[in-house]
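Hi everyone,

Forwarding the result from last night's run.
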Amino acid sequence: MNDIKRAKWLVWTIMLLLFTYGGYSQQCNLNVTGGNSVEITEMFQLNAAQKATLETLSGDFALLRKDVEDQIQKLFQDHPQSTQEELTTLSAKYKMLQQKMVKASWEADKSFLQGLNPKQYQLYLDLCAEAILEPIKVTPVIYTDSIPPKKE
């Protein structure tokens, strides 16, 4: 009987993982919250304000991720898992928490992209086109103080 429970748990876990990764998967995400801020900073040649925004978004997401991971841990510890109905309910609750993190990551990407200038945003669009992914639509910012005026 133990082997049957283990096999059911394994099948359920695999199905859960397959169903949780959807929705935003075709979007061209930078994953600014994923710890690749050095690469993003270099690639887009960020100014000081953009770097600060990137750090803030990453920090805010880290707090959310910790909170959601704690909720997931508590969910798996406390939620009953003896019947198929209980497992289905657990799966729905887990998927909701996972989607909360995916949505927060997408919103962080969008907030970051809104701070890019037109050339930086065009680079993002070019990268998305190369990867055949749908870009997040934003209106780039025109920075008037980024480049000092030429002296004649």
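Residues 15-24 have pLDDT under 50 and may be disordered.

Cheers,
N.
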